[in-house]
Structures are given as C-alpha cells and as structure tokens.
Amino acid sequence: MSDKGSKIGCTLDKFLELSTNPQTGKLDEKSIFEAKGGLQREASGMYGDLRHPVNLDVDIDFEATDIKTGKQESISLWTIEV
Known about the structure:
Elements: E1 2-3, E2 6-7, H1 12-19, H2 29-43, E3 47-51, E4 62-66, E5 72-75
C-alpha cells in the first residue's frame, strides 16, 4: 500500500478486510482512511494483529495487540493520527 510516498506492507486481503465497513460490508472512504491509519501504526511497531472488533455493537474501529504490553487494545479513529 502506498500513500504520498509512504509504503506499508500488507496483503491485499488484509487491506480489503480492514477497509471494509463492518456495518455495511462495503468499502468506503472513511473505512479506507481508518485502515491506512491502523496499518501505519502496525507497521511502526505500535500494534500487532490489527483487526475489526468481534462485537460490532462497540463503537471502536479496530482491536489490536499492544506490542509493548502484549495486551489487547481497542483503537478508535481519534487515537490514530495519519
């Protein structure tokens, strides 16, 4: 994936999964933006195993493993700076 010269390595399947709005099942601009931000955080070593939350009733964008603590974290768009 490339955005303004920055490259983030991930599979197309993972990018499409993270870019798909879990409520609608469709790709949309906001979900793509969120996926890019989450993948940048994952590539920088802050998080691992980035994924959509299992419980879709929770208002968060992603769940991931905090690399420093090993704990599961909830990540919202407000915590991702792109």
